Amino acid sequence: MTFAETKHLDEQYIMPTYGRFGLCLTEGKGCRVKDAEGKTYLDFTAGIGVNSLGWCDDEWAAAVCKQAGLLQHTSNLFYTQPGALLAKKLCERTGMDKVFFANSGAEANEGAIKAARKYSRKKYGKDRSTILSITNSFHGRTMAALSATGQTELQKDFDPMVPGFRHIPAGDATALATALGPDVCALMIEPIQGEGGVLPFDKEYMEMIESVCRPRDILIIADEIQTGVGRTGHFLASSLYGLHPDIVTLAKGLGSGLPIGAVLFRDTCSDSLGKGEHGTTFGMNPICCAGANVVMDRLDEAFLEDVAEKGQWFHKQLAALPSVTQVSGAGLMWGLSFAPPITAASVREEAQNRGLLCLLAKSRLRLLPPLIISKEELKEGLSILQTVLEKLS
After folding, report:
1. Catalytic pick among 138, 165, 314, 338
2. So what's the pLDDT on residue 37?
């Protein structure tokens, strides 16, 4: 089909919940992807941080195809080898104790919310169920995850929100200490706010979280759906701060293109959910787990060190671009602000016209290239951004 034919079918039959970028992507390899007209683009999006190994990695594709020819789905009433192996790798890599597999980041956060409330109810009774989260945070679009999200503009048409959530100002130590009342069971936080603009926290604030939550037995939930699985040059971005969460949620880059989410539990709360108290039809799907096992095997320490090194170099180059006023993030996760009248939306659109795909995060340009990207490809993307900014200045 032509792009026009695809666009027509999409607009006629698909609910218009996304503002698409005006491209129909048809095939990709490594860090490059083609549209329906055959034009090739350098990719700084990775499917919103999903394609950690780039487009159609050979080893990943072979593992997925092999598993698809063996066993595609069983339900969780049976044991399967890919899921058991993946759980072992995740626990050994992170120091966590147990894993629950879901299908997405929002589902992983829903599982974390349930587990935190069950843990506290079992130990302290039913009146200790409030979960704190941070203003400007994003935790998903299902109802409980949306209620945890600290962006009222995303919630306004879907009231009433699920009760039992309170939002506190980002980075405000006094507000955090004041909010930790006897009704609070957990604090949910993104180590770097992704959809909120790629905004890290001060290390001192994250250290304070640990010091005030631990004595009160308030669980720390780290939403690492966008920051986890090597995106920041660490397997978990919590490591950037020395944070030791009780629950970690993962998705996006774990499957490198297949739908999978995971909730990791430290031994403090690893028995909080029992048989029949949480579940999913498709979670721990063998094909998705086969792909995720390849990701886990590839992301060894040398791989992560390479991501961190590329990220440090990339940061310096981004900060030196004309009209860039702020760069924030870590590893291969960066957000950029620009001097007026340049807008992130105009930069993204012009970059696409010149063969570079980028993302937006609120009013900022967001860059999430595949973790396998080479320094030469980063230089190529920087050259395009330089040209775009010079044109728009």
Report:
1. 138
2. 94
What is the reported pLDDT for 386? 98
Report how far residue 333's alpha carbon sits from residue 49's, in angstroms, rounded to the nearest whole number. Answer: 8
Alpha carbon of 241 to those of 190, 226, 345, 363, 365: distances in Å? 12, 16, 31, 26, 24
Alpha helices (H) in the chain, listed in sequence order: 3-13, 46-49, 58-68, 81-94, 105-124, 143-148, 152-155, 173-179, 203-213, 286-298, 301-319, 344-353, 375-392
**Catalytic site residue from 57, 223, 235, 338:** 223
Q: Out of 98, 118, 252, 310, which one is annotated catalytic? A: 252
Convert the pLDDT of each residue in 78-100 to its tens digit.
999 999 999 999 999 999 999 99
User: Which residue in this structure is represented by tokens 């979960």?
Assistant: 131
- C-alpha–C-alpha distance, residues 285 and 210, integer Å: 34
pLDDT value of position 192: 98
- Per-residue confidence (pLDDT) for residue 266, from 0 to 100: 97
252 carries an active-site annotation: yes
Annotated active-site residue 223? The verdict is yes
Secondary structure of residue 298 in the 3-state scheme: helix
3 state SS for 344-361:
HHHHHHHHHHCCEECEEE
pTM for this model (two decimals): 0.97
Low pLDDT (below 50) residues in the chain? none
Query: From CA 187, how far away is CA 130, in angstroms rounded?
Result: 9
Closest by CA position to 103, among listed 309, 293, 295, 249: 249
Query: Does residue 138 have an active-site annotation?
Result: yes
CB 253 within 8 A of CB 213: no
State the residue for tokens 């180590």: 191
Report residue 360: phi and psi, to 5°.
Answer: -120, 150
Q: How is residue 136 written in tokens?
A: 């400007």
263 DSSP assignment: E
Residue showing tokens 């109802």: 143
pLDDT digits (tens, 9 = 90+) for 207-241: 999 999 999 999 999 999 999 999 999 999 999 99
